[in-house]
Amino acid sequence: QVQLAESGGGLVQAGGSLKLSCAAPGNIVGLNAMGWYRQTPGKQRELVASITRGGLTNYAGSLKGRFTISRDSAANTLYLQMNGLKAEDTATYYCNFYPPTSRAWGQGTQVTVSS
Q: What was the pLDDT predicted at 109?
């Protein structure tokens, strides 16, 4: 089991911003490809963004330009900066490896965007 701890979610108005954090043990963030995922009730979890060991980033099509994935390897923390939030971004957000592994899903952090 890998303990990843997401934080930073909350209630925000449409057009607002949030920055999510994912704290990881050891040097997981720096040595692995990592991703942010989100899930809404009744839907499958979907990839939001990923970052490779080399720093290459990739985003779900509709999110590029609004979301930015980054990491601080020294702090063993993965981030997701979310700008221009929309009601459809409301979801529980999770971090995990990319591709994800079942042993690393955490509790997630809830993001709610009011319109």
A: 98
